[in-house]
Design a protein that fits this description.
The structure holds 2 protein chains of 2 kinds. By secondary structure, chain A is of the alpha/beta class. Helices cover 31% and strands 29% of the residues of chain A. Chain A has a 6-stranded mixed sheet with strand order 5-6-7-3-8-9, with helices on both faces. In chain A, strands 2-1-4 form a 3-stranded antiparallel sheet, with helices on one face. In chain A, helix 6 packs parallel to helix 7. Chain A is globular and about 50 Å long. In chain B, 60% of the residues lie in helices and 15% in strands. Chain B has a 9-stranded mixed sheet. Chain B is rod-shaped and about 140 Å long. The two termini of chain B are 25 Å apart. The chains are: A alpha/beta, B alpha+beta. At the A-B interface, helix 2, strand 5 and helix 4 of A face helix 1, helix 9, helix 10 and helix 12 of B.
């Protein structure tokens, strides 16, 4: 199994007035193609920091992050942005859709960086796949929360990333929609992608191949 | 999807914020265009006023000139050319010159196309006793005028034909002579050809006969003792010029000028012209002062308004950046480059500038009634306003581009 994401002894500390917070304290993790890994842990355990570091959004203080055989933190800021667009998809608890764009255009925002010619065609495929065909021209405020998360999922998958990072994607969803989203993540892994999910939801772990726990900036159970 | 489409969608979504920005650019451009249009309109109006005043003055001066020409003609000859050796004291005491010069001088003067005088009339004048009537008269022999600029002009004094006589008022009244009557003078018979009206001058006791006859009767063949002429402008300062010119042509002559009334009128006319010119000059200076005041006011007001609008646009851009913080974070996470985020905000500012420039130009032009379309200003405004808007939004756009997406996504 090819390794998609590898973290080697990654450290990330934040200096606060009340002392140093060790958000990641020597984290090592390897996720292969087709693997769905869930990370659980209490608030402030460093889950989101782990996701940001893996998503090439937050440079670790030390250690190495390797994605699809490359070390993105050795690239320039602009190259890292391109790297994210090409290899990584994000799904957030708050969906982070653009208020003034309709469903199709929200999905296509992922193509702003990649400028792929086939983006529109791919977006329509994803709209069909996520059951949003009759919502194409609707803006986020006209969608249900489940539909919004499906739009966010479609946006994350537009550029056919190798790695999908999900931060509490079911946190704002009812059980049915939560299951549907987790099912989509599992399907992505089944198609050969790698999924890293951070969540409070114990049920979410049921969809993963591996469930890890994070506490005090350290991963356990890997 | 591209940045341009994203800009348009965002503008349509946040219409009020965009409209406030456009309004700001409109105010700045409108103020600038209005100020320039106002100055242009002022210049146009000034030109109209000055042209009208100049035309009015010209008309008045033409009327004055015509009036003066008529007065001058009525007054008759006002320049007298005499032999150089003629004593003026004798001339004024005797009423005629006692020295003579060749009649040919008049022709020479005419042929040289003298420029300062006109209506050249050679004459032979003498005070004589009219033995047939026992009267002392002024005896004047004249021929037709010697023309300088062609024979078309009307003579001041009609020529007297041989055998004819023209009489002054005092003479024909006291002698009860009428036109067509025969009379004898110094043994020769003459027919009365014309009776002059009373003039109140020595002309009233003057007898005019043909020059050649007069020369024969006085034994002065080919001789004259004066050339009468007309200085049409009659300005007092002209006399030295006339003298200088005639001295060059006829070195052994002298020139005197009379008819002081004409000179006074000419002076009055000159002063009227000078006053009219001074009035126009005062009007020009007044308009220039007003323009200068307007220019100074615009030079303070326009930059102040432009600066105020730029600050306002900057605040609006900053508010837009703050409002779209989450959007910036997610776009950066999706791989959108910092440079693209910068253009996202600068493009919006440029669109605001273009819209504001068009409306501001129209508003500025419309604000000044009768303002002419200023074609070269339009492209300058269409280029300048977006540039101003982009510069005013530069710092907020830069802040947006430099935001850390991880920070935003963790906080949102």
């Amino acid at each position: 199994m090819d390794t998609i994401l590898e973290l080697r002894d990654v450290q990330k500390h934040f200096r606060r007035p009340d002392g140093v917070v060790r958000a990641m304290d020597g984290v090592s993790l390897r996720i292969g193609a087709g693997e769905f890994v869930a990370v659980q842990g209490p608030s402030g355990s460093g889950k989101t920091t782990l996701l940001m570091a893996a998503g090439v959004l937050m440079q670790p203080d030390s250690g190495a992050v390797v994605i699809a055989g490359e070390e993105p933190y050795k690239l320039s800021a602009e190259q890292r942005a391109g790297f994210r667009a090409a290899h990584i998809g994000f799904v957030f608890q708050q969906f982070h859709l653009v208020h003034y764009l309709n469903v199709l255009d929200n999905i296509l925002t992922a193509a702003l960086a990649s400028r792929a010619d086939s983006a529109k065609e791919r977006a329509r495929e994803l709209i069909e796949r996520f059951g949003l065909a009759n919502r194409t021209s609707h803006v986020p405020s006209e969608l249900s929360t489940g539909e919004r998360q499906r739009v966010a999922l479609a946006r994350a998958l537009l550029n056919k990333p190798k790695l999908l990072l999900a931060d509490e994607p079911t946190g704002n969803l009812d059980e049915e929609n939560g299951r549907m989203v987790l099912g989509c993540l599992a399907a992505f892994a089944k198609e050969g992608g790698a999924v890293l999910l951070v969540t409070h939801d114990p049920k979410a772990a049921g969809f993963s191949h591996r469930a890890l726990r994070m506490e005090g900036g350290r991963l356990t159970g890997s | 999807m591209n940045i341009g489409r994203l800009i348009i969608r965002e503008i349509l979504f946040r219409k009020l914020s965009f409209a406030l920005g456009v309004l700001s650019v409109l105010a700045a451009v409108g103020c600038l265009v209005g100020a320039l249009a106002s100055l242009r309109e002022h210049d146009r109006r000034t030109e109209q006023i000055i042209t009208a005043k100049q035309a009015e003055t010209q008309e008045k001066m033409e009327l004055l000139a015509d009036d003066y020409r008529r007065i001058t003609l009525k007054l008759g000859f006002n320049v007298l050319i005499l032999p150089k050796d003629q004593k003026l004291s004798d001339l004024f005491a005797d009423d005629y010159a006692s020295k003579y010069m060749p009649e040919e001088y008049a022709t020479r003067l005419a042929k040289s196309r003298v420029a300062t005088i006109n209506h050249i009339l050679p004459s032979l004048q003498q005070k004589v006793k009219w033995p047939e009537t026992g009267r002392t008269i002024l005896f004047m022999g004249v021929r037709g005028e010697v023309y300088i600029r062609g024979a078309g002009q009307k003579p001041l004094l009609e020529p007297v034909q041989a055998g004819q006589i023209v009489l002054g008022a005092e003479l024909h009244q006291s002698l009860k002579l009428k036109v067509g009557d025969k009379t004898r003078l110094l043994g020769r018979e003459f027919t009365v050809a014309k009776l002059n009206d009373e003039r109140g001058t020595k002309d009233d006791i003057t007898v005019w006969i043909n020059l050649a006859e007069a020369q024969a009767m006085l034994g002065k063949e080919g001789q004259i003792n004066g050339i009468l002429a007309l200085d049409c402008t009659c300005a007092d300062a002209r006399l030295p010029i006339i003298r200088a010119e005639i001295e060059k042509i006829l070195p052994d002559t002298q020139v005197i000028e009379f008819a002081s009334q004409a000179i006074a009128r000419a002076e009055a006319r000159r002063r009227a012209a000078a006053e009219a010119e001074a009035t126009i000059e005062r009007e020009k200076q007044g308009r220039a002062r007003l323009r200068s005041e307007r220019e100074a006011f615009a030079a303070v007001l326009v930059p102040l308004i432009v600066l105020g609008c730029a600050v306002w646009i900057g605040f609006l851009a900053l508010a837009n950046v703050r409002e779209r913080r989450g959007e910036i974070g997610v776009l950066r996470a999706l791989g959108v480059r910092a440079r693209q985020i910068l253009w996202l905000f600068l493009g919006r500012a440029a669109a605001m500038g273009v819209a504001g420039a068009c409306m501001g130009y129209a508003a500025g032009q419309a604000a000044i009634a009768g303002a002419e379309f200023n074609a070269p200003l339009l492209p300058a405004v269409l280029a300048g306003a977006p540039l101003l808007s982009v510069l005013a939004s530069w710092v907020p756009a830069l802040l947006a581009a430099q935001q850390d997406p991880a920070d935003i996504l963790r906080q949102e």
